[in-house]
Amino acid sequence: VGAVRETGATVFDEGRGEYRVTGGGENIWGAEDAFHYAWQRVTGDVDLAANIRFVGSGQHEHRKAGLMVRASLEAGAPYVNATVHGDGLISLQYRETPGGETQEVKASLTAVPVSLRLTRRGDVFTFFTARPGEELEEAGSVTLTLEGPPYAGLAVCSHETGTLETAVFSGLELKTP
Questions:
Q1: How far is residue 68's CA from residue 153's CA, in Å, rounded to a whole number?
Q2: Closest CA to 104 of 52, 62, 133
């Protein structure tokens, strides 16, 4: 999604039940995004959850990996994502209008690796956080209308143009209850 110099990739390791998502791009923030996105179209309510960890020490503290529901694949599309940064910051980030500024609800938990869940019930998106193996706790929510069937999936951004970063998503759940 957006202007990325390096092509990303998504690889499923069936033996481990893990998705390795590699992506570049300047950021998932501001009025336009640039990142790698592994997605599928969904309708109605959505539950998206995974344990997330980065591979290696990374180039930038704000590299991101997360769970996203997005109105379209346009760089400035409205979206909601539950994301973890390379420095452990966890937040719900969202853009309400095409080309609008990104807003954020920070979780109290700071951790990598992390367990995240993002749910959509009508226009209400809620995110949950925990350290892997612990019980998820609600960390925040936002009300946002996404027109048409959105795209739900896994997002990775290196926060460095020309650099690729990899995150591992394990225990992935994507449900449309």
A1: 5
A2: 62
Helix (H, G, I), strand (E, B) or coil at 13: strand
Contact 90, 167 (CB under 8 A): no
Identity at 49, one-letter amino acid code:
A
CA distance 125 to 140: 9
- Over the stretch 148-161, which tens digit does the pLDDT of each residue have? 899 999 999 999 88
Q: How many other CB atoms sit within 10 Å of the CB of residue 46?
A: 19
Percentage of the chain with pLDDT > 90?
Answer: 89
Tokens at residue 110, please? 């700071």
Q: How far apart are CA 170 and CA 164, in angstroms?
A: 20
C-alpha to C-alpha distances, 118 to 3, 68, 83, 169, nearest whole angstrom: 26, 8, 10, 14
* Confidence check: pLDDT of 89 > 90: yes
Structural contact between residues 38 and 168, judged by C-beta atoms closer than 8 angstroms:
no
CA 164 to chain centre: 16
Q: Helical H runs in the chain?
A: none
Q: pTM for the whole thing?
A: 0.95
Whose tokens are 């452990």? That residue is 88
Q: Are 49 and 67 in contact (CB under 8 A)?
A: yes
Question: How many helices (H) and strands (E) in the chain?
Answer: 0, 15
